[in-house]
Write a sequence for this structure.
């Protein structure tokens, strides 16, 4: 049940608990230990559209359908692929992207749908709490010795590590403009170092007598936290380091800040970053709100893809845009400003980079955007594809604390072959 | 009323023995495969198991009591039960030629017993009083004191509420507080375990009338109820058999649904409706026929399965309520699972690991490390012991086995199975919060949050616990699992850096040495060693003022392994 490799590493690192790392600036971007599969991606940025974005008003427009709505499709940098007129900058990077238009999932309530979309398992199934994709990537690709966390979640509360335990829990950033909570020492630098020196002595004395693994693990966690406080990588959390012009490309607002932070985190080797944007639950006033939300995502996503490309990181970084589910193909009649309701039967997600060839569309809905007519895709299929792009064997089984073997993703038909 | 598949169990367990020292999963799988193969041509009379190659492996479930190395007390006698424990543990240690570590110090015992029983470290005054006492009987007296402390109920309520009130978005409208309070009261009153479980399993009424019904409000489907009943009260994991025959055992899908049928008459109010302007203390549970919806949940093949006890008979219940019958069967003294499950859990609670691990996977294919002891404790608890949990805890804590130091010797360092030395445990988030609150004085007086109408965490303790659980149901009792965010909070949050806290702990200490002693007694329940006093007083002298020095030392102590672990 114990992860032997981790354990051995911890044993080694216990020799010098804190001292050698106080000045530490370790070279980053060292490849994580390779694990099964052929995918080359090293990081994932998951952009979660909380509430469930309307597919017919974003990435799967149906101008000739009954519930077509107000938006017009525009051409994109991918031949033959059209998206909403309110995503013009994203249209410019669709040559690096893939749209999955055949998403079809079983959950129509927010919580359950988000749980399923993050874990590939339905809430309550088998009496377990399943790990989210971020925690799975942290486990499979994260470096236990990294000074940076292996999973960062920016904005809303993400889904956590479930039975994988708190080690793979995301570091939560509530407001990207403020950075990491409790990252600053409460006392001056010199005094903090003295305190850490005292602590180090206590740790070593206690370990000499009791020799338990838990002591080593405790010391290692503290070591990583101190390292993070003092590391240069932690500056990735500080957006003020970015030039005005660079920030300008992303636009303003929490989501834009979050996306920018995600890029900075990926640059220092963080394997999974999730950024969420709420407000997509447009039962009412769908068109005004989706237009405004589209404007909030357009610049940051386009800037992110362009920046990653420019830095040579796009092939090793998979960017995913998705939400809880899609929205009804028909427009409801709720008051003066109608909207669209929950619709898990057919919806879209979009992905960029990650070693994909770009410009592809996977799956197809019917004329109304109401049913999938080609390649219906479940969350398991999508999650298994993410694993494959990351070089993770999704059929691997993780053990729960009670020794139940649970496959990373089960019953999946990944579509990797169609996009690489 | 013995187990029908007993022969198969015996076979499988016998095989597990011959397989010897392999990983539990491999052993289970291999044993299951072989057992399945053999079962086809099975001789109903199981072959005698080969002699065990390792001390841990033992023959299969007996119908008669296994012989023990010391007599099983005929009536409640904690000291005699402790002797039985020690004799059995010594027998296994001798067989494996492993030496036991010596008796723990008073300092270790005090902090360990306080945390295990009441979930919080002792105050500095209490520590001083206990350490200075010359009473030869002080350890036993401390145990009585701790078991009478209302914090015992809180500790048990923390553990059991987490198990029976799962983290689930569907539970955000269910009140958690009434169940918590109910557990707290039941454990403090020391309601016998069989009565307590009967109250839960057979509960009807509204939350207001009978808070135990919350168990049903928080587990609203027959499969969840079947799974939690089996897992928590009988120590077995049935859930795999819900959809297919259990891969590791002989549980059949029909046996699963036979058990599930006992819950088919449960009618649970929808907590969501009550929340819409209603009062969610007025919702509850009734038992009655016509739970068409419940029956609808059953797979097609299971709809006609009659209520049948697991590995037991099919009761003829007619129109009678099902759940009292289930509770009666489950909690009867000769139920093969019930007493063993709580003994194993209690042992794991105190030692960090059970006789069987995982504690809720008590398959015959997953043999106990000390089968005769587990068997004897279970039989005793279910009969003369009257399912008295405080008595069981006291007996275990009186044993030399519990009172060994956690310091391993070079010879027993590798032992993880035989209880040659105490396992170093990790404070649960609740223990950590309560202990930090006690030392720093912050959040101590804060009552549990009221009116958490949506069952969400509220209040400092709940927020802290949720932050440390980080979405998991529970933390491991022996592995340190907290991550960077938790370490950052413990190092850098205002609560952990409050100069007033150090000032209060140090109080009117006349010298730096005395101040350091007060910090150690308050946080670590011991006095510093001479070397520590020397180092730390020198540190205070160089720290730019004693107040700064004391604050630094308190910070380091509260962030240390020694604080966050139980030795």
């Amino acid at each position: 049940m114990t992860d032997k490799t981790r354990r051995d590493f911890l044993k080694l690192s216990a020799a010098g608990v804190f001292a050698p790392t106080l000045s530490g600036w370790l070279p980053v971007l060292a490849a994580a230990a390779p694990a099964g599969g052929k995918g080359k991606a090293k990081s994932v940025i998951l952009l979660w559209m909380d509430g469930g974005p309307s597919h017919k008003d974003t990435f799967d427009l149906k101008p000739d359908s009954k519930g077509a709505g107000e938006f017009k499709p525009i051409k994109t940098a991918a031949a033959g692929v059209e998206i909403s007129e309110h995503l013009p900058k994203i249209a410019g990077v669709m040559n690096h992207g893939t749209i999955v238009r055949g998403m079809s999932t079983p959950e129509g309530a927010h919580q359950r749908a988000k749980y399923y979309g993050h874990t590939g398992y339905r809430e309550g199934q088998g009496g377990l709490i399943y790990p989210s994709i971020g925690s799975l990537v942290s486990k499979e690709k994260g470096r236990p010795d990294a000074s940076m966390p292996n999973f960062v979640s920016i904005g809303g509360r993400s889904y956590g590590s479930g039975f994988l335990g708190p080690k793979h829990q995301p570091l939560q950033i509530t407001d990207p403009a403020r950075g990491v909570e409790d990252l600053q020492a409460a006392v001056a630098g010199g005094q903090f170092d003295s305190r850490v020196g005292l602590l180090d002595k206590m740790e070593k004395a206690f370990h000499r007598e009791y020799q338990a693994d838990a002591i080593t693990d405790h010391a290692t966690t503290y070591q990583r936290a101190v390292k993070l406080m003092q590391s240069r990588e932690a500056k990735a959390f500080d957006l003020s380091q970015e030039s005005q012009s660079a920030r300008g490309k992303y636009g303003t607002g929490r989501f834009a800040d979050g996306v920018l932070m995600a890029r900075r985190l990926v640059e220092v080797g963080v394997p999974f970053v999730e950024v969420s944007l709420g407000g997509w639950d447009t039962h009412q006033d769908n068109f005004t709100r989706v237009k405004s939300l589209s404007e909030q995502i357009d610049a940051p996503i386009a800037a992110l893809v362009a920046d990653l490309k420019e830095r040579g990181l796009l092939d090793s970084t998979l960017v995913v845009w998705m939400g809880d589910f899609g929205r009804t193909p028909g427009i409801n009649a709720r008051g003066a400003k109608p909207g669209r309701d929950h619709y898990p039967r057919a919806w879209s997600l979009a992905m960029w980079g990650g070693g994909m060839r770009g410009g592809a569309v996977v799956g197809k809905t019917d004329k109304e955007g109401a049913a999938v007519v080609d390649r219906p895709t479940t969350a398991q299929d999508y999650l298994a594809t993410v694993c494959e792009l990351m070089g993770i064997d999704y059929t691997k089984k993780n053990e729960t604390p009670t020794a139940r073997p649970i496959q990373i993703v089960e019953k999946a038909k990944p579509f990797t072959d169609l996009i690489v | 009323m013995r187990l029908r598949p007993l022969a198969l169990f015996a076979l499988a367990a016998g095989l597990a023995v011959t397989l010897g020292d392999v990983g539990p999963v491999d052993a289970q799988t291999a044993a299951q495969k072989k057992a399945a193969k053999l079962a086809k041509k099975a001789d109903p009379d199981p072959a005698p198991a080969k002699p065990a190659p390792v001390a841990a492996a033992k023959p299969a479930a007996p119908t008669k009591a296994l012989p023990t190395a010391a007599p099983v007390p005929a009536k409640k006698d904690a000291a005699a039960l402790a002797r039985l424990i020690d004799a059995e543990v010594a027998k296994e240690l001798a067989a494996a030629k492993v030496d036991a570590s010596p008796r723990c110090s008073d300092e270790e015992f005090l902090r360990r017993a306080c945390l295990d029983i009441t979930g919080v470290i002792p105050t500095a005054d209490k520590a001083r009083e206990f350490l200075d006492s010359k009473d030869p009987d002080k350890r036993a007296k401390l145990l009585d004191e701790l078991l009478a402390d209302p914090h015992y109920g809180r500790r048990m309520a923390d553990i059991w509420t987490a198990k029976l009130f799962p983290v689930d978005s569907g539970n955000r409208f269910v009140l958690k507080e009434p169940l918590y309070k109910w557990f707290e009261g039941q454990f403090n009153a020391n309601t016998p375990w069989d009565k307590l479980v009967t109250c839960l399993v057979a509960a009807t009424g509204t939350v207001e009338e009978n808070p135990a019904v919350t168990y049903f409000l928080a587990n609203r489907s027959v499969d969840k109820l079947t799974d939690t009943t089996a897992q928590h009260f009988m120590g077995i994991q049935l859930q795999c058999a819900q959809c297919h025959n259990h891969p590791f055992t002989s549980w059949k899908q029909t046996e699963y649904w036979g058990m599930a049928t006992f819950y088919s008459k449960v009618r649970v109010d929808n907590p969501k409706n009550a929340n819409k302007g209603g009062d969610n203390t007025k919702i509850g549970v009734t038992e009655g026929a016509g739970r068409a919806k419940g029956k609808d949940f059953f797979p097609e093949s299971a709809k006609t399965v009659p209520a049948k006890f697991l590995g037991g008979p099919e009761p003829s219940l007619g129109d009678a309520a099902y759940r009292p019958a289930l509770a009666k069967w489950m909690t009867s003294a000769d139920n093969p699972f019930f007493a063993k499950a709580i003994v194993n859990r209690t042992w794991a609670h105190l030692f960090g690991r059970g006789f069987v691990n995982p504690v809720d996977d008590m398959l015959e294919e997953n043999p106990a490390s000390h089968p005769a002891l587990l068997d004897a404790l279970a039989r005793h608890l279910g009969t003369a012991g009257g399912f008295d949990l405080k008595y069981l805890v006291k007996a275990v804590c009186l044993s030399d086995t519990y009172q060994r130091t956690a310091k391993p010797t070079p010879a027993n360092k590798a032992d993880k199975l035989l209880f040659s030395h105490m396992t170093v445990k990790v404070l649960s988030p609740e223990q950590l919060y309560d202990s930090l609150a006690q030392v720093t004085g912050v959040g101590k007086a804060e009552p549990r949050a009221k009116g958490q109408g949506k069952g969400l965490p509220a209040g400092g303790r709940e927020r802290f616990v949720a932050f440390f659980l980080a979405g998991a149901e529970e933390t491991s009792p022996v592995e340190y699992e907290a991550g960077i965010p938790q370490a950052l909070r413990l190092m850098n949050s205002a609560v952990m850096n409050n100069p007033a806290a150090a000032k209060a702990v140090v109080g009117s200490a006349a010298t730096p040495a005395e101040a350091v002693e007060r910090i150690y007694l308050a946080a670590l329940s011991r006095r510093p060693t001479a070397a520590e006093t020397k180092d730390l007083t020198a540190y205070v002298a160089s720290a730019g003022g004693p107040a700064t020095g004391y604050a630094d030392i308190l910070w380091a102590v509260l962030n240390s392994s020694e604080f966050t672990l139980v030795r």
About this structure: The longest strand of chain A covers residues 43-49. Residues 95 and 359 of chain A are 4 Å apart (CA to CA). Confidence is low (pLDDT under 50) at residues 1-36 of chain A. The radius of gyration of chain A is 22 Å.
